[in-house]
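Cont'd.
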Amino acid sequence: MTSSAQAEARRPRRPSGGPESLLDKAVLEFNARGYDATSMEDLSRAAGITKSSFYHHFAGKEALLRAALERALDGLFSALDDPPGVEPAVGPSERLRRIVTRQVRVLMDDLPYVTLLLRVRGNTPTERWALQRRKAYDAEIAALVRAAVDAGEIRAGVDPALAARLLSGLVNSVSEWYRPGRRGTASLPEDVARAIFAGVLPAADPA
Amino acid sequence: MTSSAQAEARRPRRPSGGPESLLDKAVLEFNARGYDATSMEDLSRAAGITKSSFYHHFAGKEALLRAALERALDGLFSALDDPPGVEPAVGPSERLRRIVTRQVRVLMDDLPYVTLLLRVRGNTPTERWALQRRKAYDAEIAALVRAAVDAGEIRAGVDPALAARLLSGLVNSVSEWYRPGRRGTASLPEDVARAIFAGVLPAADPA
DNA sequence: GTCTATAATCAGATAGAC
DNA sequence: GTCTATCTGATTATAGAC
């Protein structure tokens, strides 16, 4: 008997597996059908308990959303800073490259949570709160892009505001198709950073 | 009195302005709140008629969605071909550049329709039909990217499947922020094409 | 082509037993 | 911590008068 099977047997009265597991399952459902199209009935069925039992763990549908978006935003913001012990980047361009790399990594690690965040429309106070925090994050990226252009590290003629939007768009679009374990995505964070600075389809060097 | 004001006066019994106008207004509502979160009540209020009157023009909510997605998909596919009278592109790379440029233009012209399409999740038969057609479109793009790589026009080492996904992601991300009349977007189609082939943040030429 | 009124269903949420 | 039963309100859609 494996230890996980033992653990299973030790808690037969808790098929839901605790709030974290419930949140994980709920986020998957939200992403599969969209937040608004997902009912509490759907969530409880996916968790293997009844609707009423679900309300014992979360105050309601929006509380679930809030918890999920909080996790996604915390992950995103963590990509802004170098891990402790790493020497600081020499210029804004290099700092951006590191942030893009880390942001893609966060996106891959917390895919369902970040995906949910990126689809928020602003229908409820919780959603508007998330949109505001996202906006603050995007502003940090835009400021760095401006700094890189001002420092002369980027080719003349590039509009910083436009470049910042395209950068975020390219990075975030990974959530539309990436799935864990997908072939050819081992170096995805670096590949996306390369696409940002050299192009998605860079011209071949003349032979 | 302007001619549009005359037309207004000539049809006082038709405040809805016909099915096309209804569809326009409905798509705006869908995008503002999300398709599922938008009720028929919301739609009829935005159109200035009652819910019942709305049902006189469209069979239901899904019929509206179908009509809107059809228009978006027709626009997208129209970007695949050169307009009549234009000489064909010399290679796959140049053909891709033209398609990207035209696709961004379609996105800008039919922004609400394309936005709606890009947010479809697959909850209903209509949505799954739209997803299938989108998939077919993406496959055409992916085939062209492969051809460009095989022709040696793209720098060695670029994975065609990944590049195709990033290309579509970058192009489609424009729908997340573009609004008609926005400053600095006059040359957006060309700017996006340049970002694809040279990078969002191309390094400055060494002085 | 528009309206009022209403049917039928389903949603989020709660009460209270075990 | 889970359940059955239920409340309340919103939603899609229709009937039928004008």
